[in-house]
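Researcher: We plan to redesign the surface later, but first we want a full-length starting point. Tokens attached.
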């Protein structure tokens, strides 16, 4: 069962070839939602099968943290 905070669904080789990217789903603790994820993955997952509308409710984007730019003068 997916975790409480978030899980990623990676595209298959075919999904990557079609331009699929990982999809992050958060707070999925409903057995029905888990079944929706399983059905989507069995249908091909990212890049092959469209994300079901119901799973859009759980989807989120990761924010990549970067180091702040050094200020002038090295401070």
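Model: Full-length starting sequence:
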């Amino acid at each position: 069962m997916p975790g409480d905070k978030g899980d990623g669904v990676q595209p298959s080789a075919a999904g990557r070839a079609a331009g699929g990217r990982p999809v992050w789903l958060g707070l999925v603790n409903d057995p029905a939602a888990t079944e929706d994820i399983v059905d989507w993955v069995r249908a091909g997952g990212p890049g092959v099968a469209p994300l079901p509308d119901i799973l859009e409710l759980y989807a989120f984007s990761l924010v990549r943290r970067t180091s702040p730019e050094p200020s002038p003068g090295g401070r």
